[in-house]
Amino acid sequence: MVKYMDTFEPLTFPKSSIHIQHSLFIFSFNQFKPPYITSQNSIHIFNQFKPIKMAESNNNPAHDPDTENPINPALELAQFGAGCFWGVELAFQRVPGVVKTEVGYSQGDVLDPNYKLVCTGTTNHVEVVRVHFDPTACPYSNLLDLFWSRHDPTTVNRQAGDVGTQYRSGIYYYNETQARLAQESKEAKQLELKDKKIVTEILPAKRFYRAEEYHQQYLEKGGRNGAGQSAAKGCNDPIRCYG
Q: What's this model's pTM, rounded to 2 decimal places?
């Protein structure tokens, strides 16, 4: 196919230097079979070229790995997204062997996000809980069991009435052992759920942006109403999530 653009002024193209960039491909004029300019006022581009795929670059520091250390060298870190982080954090606070929890934002494309910005749905962040745990008292598999029991992993970008990409289901691992255990647990859960497809993503833990202080241990502190809920180890009280 030949396209004619007769309304253009005469153009001069430096040899071997002109590229047309579109989406993920670059096309070089040197790849067209001559003649590709047949008159002073017409450019004839033949549909005979090979696309050159652009190399993907990732220089966004928001995508860097989470390199922070746990509060004690004997501890490990884990990170989970399972809907609104208030209730998820309280559930992990109650697990024996969990020494510290903190809520924040991760897996997004924007540096230093805040709650208001994340809620716009434009940053691609997930509301996550980062857990500092003692693996001798709390195997990682215990955390995975709680993760799967705490939310519905089959709903895309949604948990109950909370809708948005920040509420997606995710396990974000810090080492290959965690990655393997996470995948194995996902496969076991899928067998349990049969035809209901799990949409949980399993990805390396990226930079963690700690959420505003009022979000930390929100339900234990009572939230907006001041009615605190127990974070005692082993507590089985129903978790009530409120604003």
A: 0.76
